[in-house]
Amino acid sequence: MSRAIEIAAADGTIDAHVFTPGNAEGPLPAVVLFTDIGGLRPCYYEKAQQIADNGYAVLMPNIYYRDAKGIIVPEGKSFRDPDVRPTLVEYAGHLTPEAQSRDFAALLDGIDSEAEFADGKVGVVGYCMTGAFALRMAAGHANRVAAAAGFHSARLAEVDDPNSPVHVVGTIEGHVYFGHADKDELLPPEQIARMDGALAAAGVHFTTELYKGAAHGFTAKDAPSYDAAADALHHKRLSMLLNELL
Fold this sequence. Notes:
- The protein has helices at 42-52, 85-93, 97-113, 131-140, 189-202, 228-245, and strands spanning 2-9, 12-19, 28-34, 57-61, 117-127, 145-151, 175-181, 206-211.
- By secondary structure, the chain is of the alpha/beta class.
- The chain has a single domain, classed as Alpha/Beta hydrolase fold, catalytic domain (Rossmann fold, 3-Layer(aba) Sandwich).
- Helix 3 crosses helix 4 (131-140).
């Protein structure tokens, strides 16, 4: 069960989708789902609905609304295709921490104005590059975000990166969960350790889990790295986190 909505933002109008359970009655706790670099597409609609079916209203925005509306990657294509990748990399380059911050505020305003969403705390989940988005939203809106999760997150704690989310986690008040691929070239062990150290030093309640044998992108059904067992575990862990905190 989903419907398309538009949310006014400082940089334009965010096209987004709201997913609810088929038997939904009344407002439900809100979860924001950020797609991976591939943007809106069928496998993420399915993912959002699966989360919603556990009793939530899921808001999935088009992270690339500044540049294009709706689905970016043509059917039958993927991020890995040489005629698609440059466009996505260009669009992703516009998503600076400052741009993200403006979008987070707009998304929370959108949640507060739509009937499907209950008042109170929210959850947020990101994949690949948007694992960092989830952290930044939890840090920037500590009074609203009760749970933040990232799966096969990328580049969370690169050395000498002034824009790394590792620098902002000190303000997080909610719980954080990471599900990492154990051999992820985009998040090597030293970055995992650096992020874990920053969270621990800040006193953040967090859990880090390595998904043995999984590769980067293990939750994306349209990726060659998709891993059904790891994807099922991701849904189980996310369900546990949201159930406890929302």
